[in-house]
Design brief:
This protein is mainly alpha-helical. It contains nine helices and three strands. Helix content is 60%, strand content 9%.
Length: 186
């Protein structure tokens, strides 16, 4: 199944040198893509093991180099929000499957865009009075920037699903989504 045609120029505007739309790899905490991956990993941990607050704090500190969970209250509220976090984690997982399966139809059928689920999470958190500390914590993480990064990643995934890009690389931690060369009519 292919998505409706999207003008290739939309993707080309996002691509870096060499037509790279997204790089999946090891990064640093200054790398916004790595920050998104770290956040998704921590949210996934909460969804898998909702009562593992201390493991969450330890992982965040290890991967971020600082303890950005300001209070244990925030960590507990994250655990209370498992139902709200699950769609974001599932969308992240669907992106990883799309990449791992190199854009296969089965991965496309199960794909879910991450940025809209992040926007819905933010709205739900703001309207849930029992999660009163999470909006500030999300702001401290740079939530708006992370949503923008997720949109960039979603665009790369869409390019794969539309046939404008492909997944390149051999090792799971060093893959790129690269724009295909344009086909010229002769």
């Amino acid at each position: 199944m292919r998505l409706p045609g999207v003008d290739r120029r939309t993707y080309a505007a996002q691509a870096s040198d060499g037509g790279v739309l997204w790089h999946i790899g090891d990064g640093t905490d200054e790398d916004p893509e790595w920050r998104l991956d770290t956040l998704m990993g921590c949210l996934g941990l909460i969804v898998e093991e909702p009562l593992s607050v201390e493991r969450l704090r330890a992982r965040w500190k290890r991967e971020q180099g600082s303890e950005n969970l300001p209070t244990i209250v925030v960590a507990h509220q994250l655990c209370d929000a498992v139902g709200l976090l699950r769609p974001v984690v599932n969308a992240d997982e669907s992106f990883r499957n799309l990449v791992a399966l190199r854009g296969a139809a089965i991965a496309q059928a199960a794909f879910s865009f991450t940025s809209p689920t992040m926007a819905l999470l933010r709205t739900a958190v703001e309207h849930a009075s029992y999660l009163d500390r999470l909006p500030e914590w999300l702001d401290d993480l740079g939530w708006s920037e992370l949503v923008a990064i997720a949109k960039k990643r979603d665009t790369a995934a869409q390019a794969v699903m539309c046939g404008h890009a492909f997944v390149e690389g051999e090792v799971s931690h060093d893959l790129v989504i690269r724009l295909r060369e344009p086909r010229h009519a002769t």
